[in-house]
Amino acid sequence: MAGISPKEEEFIAAIGAGNRRVFTIADAAGFLGISNVAATKLAHRLVKKRKLQRIEKGKYILIPPVAWKSGEFTEESIVIASQLVSPYYISYWTALSYYGWTEQPSKTIYVVSTKIKRTLEVQGVVFKFVKLHSKKFFGFIDHWVGSVKVTMADREKTIVDCLDQPRYAGEIVEVAKGLWNGKDEIDFAKMVEYALRMKNGAIIKRLGYLMDILEIGKPEVHRRLLKSINQGMVVLDPYRGYTKGTVDPKWKLVINVDPKNLTEWIRH
Question: How many H helices and E strands in the chain?
Fold first, then answer.
């Protein structure tokens, strides 16, 4: 490798053999059998030579050799996300996109964890970490992305998470699209169980209302949701406030989004 010392070449080969897109100095030291200090010095030299990219203190990405000349590369963002925090799973808008339920791209990757972690930006992609209480941290499965295992919200939890915090889904219209586009893949009974387990009455009301206007779901699913609603009034989109909207007495919702926007795209 031109411009690379034998020790630096060994460093790169060891990281590649470890199949890690993201690695720490401790990882590198372990792969090479050297001290953390020596691994840090090697990493700093390779960053200067544009063979590694530092993403946060003590954590790096190995830039693929095909991108060494330009310093630019396209990495599987969800693969990077899978190695930034533990425990984790990927959800919200990112999961909607992964399952093919939204056509709206997002440069933000939404990562759920029980830990607090600051937002990161890597190669123009923003990684947003959403902290959830351990009681809400469920409903995820592993998918293989190339040779890397990535933990993703399952289809039902994707919708439930989005209804819990619609701002991370883009907006409530995107959740409606996800529900519609995924209707043949979603286990509605399972989704209701998830919604109840979240202990947030707003999820039940938003889900019931969207299922009504989209005319999806079996009658017994609707009945289960209706039996579970409380008397408090909530808004369909919590980030628009109560300033405008009509009241849906059935679901105890303030409809602060034009209902046409939630269904008109079906005809297109």
Answer: 10, 12
